[in-house]
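Usage

Read records sequentially. Each one opens with the input sequence:
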Amino acid sequence: MINTVLFGIVLALIFGFALTNGFLDGGGIVSTVITTRAMEPLPALIVVACCEVLGVSLLGHAVVRTMGSHMVFFPSGASSRQILVVLASAMAGALGWNSAMWRFSWPSSSSHALLGGLLGATWARFGMAAVAWPVVTRILIGLAVIPIGAAVAGFILARLLYWAGQYLTPVVIGPVRALHIIVLAGVALVHGSNDGQKSMAMVLLAMLAFGWGTSVTHLPVWLGLASGMTLALGVLFGSRRTVQTVGQSFYRVQSLQGLCAESAAMILVGASSIAGFPMSSSHVMSSSVLGAGAAIRPRSVRWDLAFSLSVAWFMTIPAAAALAALLSYVVSKAL
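and closes with the structure output:
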């Protein structure tokens, strides 16, 4: 009976996390399209939400495999209750951090929060041997390097397009906006592919702990739909709080800058999904926006705000890990 209750709590926390994931990342995805008036807010959010659902299975399930099979290894002697407590603590730590960041309208990293929560809770209960440190190290390197690549890509694309723009007439404004909307859909698809699969991986771990054996190659259809739809609901109903932070607070994003930033984010997040890296889409999007801004008017960029957000990103993994580790320790003692 206790295991059934724990399993239900874990599922509720996982889908609650997916909802806050949509809250935080959705605003960053649609921010440039809304700020540049390529689309109105509601249609933009609807397009993103639909593409999130479609994207969950678009690029395979490499991210599910990484987080659900290769990152942590629970001891063979661990009971279902122990593993479910660890998962509940991990998700509670990640959800708590996400909720706080959403409250302050900061585009925090759900990937960092989930990684920190899972590592902290697992380490506190089963020790260092339960963590696949080579895999974690590769993920951490990716989380650090790829956003830098996004800033560089945004910078280069913006410089190229603004150079080409000297030889173009105003008639190209319409095609640029249309292309911006197409790229927006692409970003939403790869975001659903990467971030939706993180929730799927956690559900997979919970199902295995509860005794419902399944594998990455035979994931139930309802799991992908549930993860994608929860993420989409978060985008629709909670992401407006972070739209202004990415689209206007760094600087006033222009059409070509928005197109460059979205394109860089789409390519890099999509590549991460194919490679199986759980990437921070909000981190990549914000970095590409900063790169596009620095390419045109670096003095207009609010570097103080960028620094503050960077501090929050660096704090996310240790903060979520500490909270999850504390919860894991306390609950395991109580049960």
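Summary fields computed downstream for this record:
- The chain has a mean pLDDT of 87.
- The radius of gyration is 20 Å.
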